[in-house]
Design goal:
mainly alpha, Hypothetical protein yqbg, 4 helices, 45% helix
C-alpha cells in the first residue's frame, strides 16, 4: 500500500523529469493523479487489477496489493513520458510490461478444473491386458466406441 504521491514521484523519477529528492509542482502532481486514475480505471474495466478506487488527492492511500506497486509506478511513468514527450528506453518499456506480468501472475488464482464428461479423454481403449486402464472415450457413453 502506498500513497498516490509516492507512485507519482517515483514515476517522474523513472522518466528523468525530477530527481527523487526534488518536490513536484502542483501541475505535475495533478497530471500524475489524472494518469494514475485513468490507469486504475482501465485496469479495473479489463479485470487486470480490480477494486482500487480512484484517488481524489495525491495524499490518498491506494490500498493496492503489494504486488501491484511496481506495475503502477512503471506504467504511470510510461504514460507520463508520452504526456511530456519523453522518448522511452527499451528497458523502461520492458519494466512496465514485466511489472504487469508479475502482478497478474501474483493475483491469478489457479485451481483444479473438472472437465466435462463430453470431453474426450483418450482413445477409448478397453483394458484387455490387465493394465488397469479401462475408460471409454466419452465417460457418459455406455456402449463401446469401436
Amino acid at each position: 500500500m502506498s500513497t498516490a504521491l509516492k507512485i507519482i514521484e517515483r514515476a517522474f523519477s523513472k522518466i528523468g523529469i525530477k530527481p527523487a529528492e526534488t518536490p513536484l509542482s502542483a501541475s505535475e502532481i495533478a497530471d500524475g493523479v489524472d494518469i494514475l486514475n485513468d490507469l486504475l480505471a482501465a485496469w479495473d474495466a479489463t479485470g487486470t487489477l480490480k477494486g482500487i478506487a480512484p484517488v481524489d488527492a495525491a495524499s490518498s492511500e491506494l490500498l493496492e496489493p503489494r504486488c501491484a506497486t511496481w506495475a503502477l509506478k512503471s506504467n504511470v511513468a510510461v504514460l507520463l513520458a508520452g504526456e511530456y514527450g519523453i522518448q522511452l528506453s527499451p528497458g523502461m518499456v520492458y519494466d512496465a510490461s514485466e511489472g504487469i506480468n508479475q502482478m497478474i501472475t501474483a493475483l491469478t488464482n489457479l485451481r483444479n478444473l473438472e472437465f466435462p464428461s463430453t470431453l474426450p479423454i483418450g482413445s477409448g481403449n478397453r483394458d484387455e491386458y490387465g493394465t488397469g486402464y479401462d475408460r471409454d472415450f466419452f465417460p457418459e457413453n455406455t456402449k463401446s466406441n469401436f
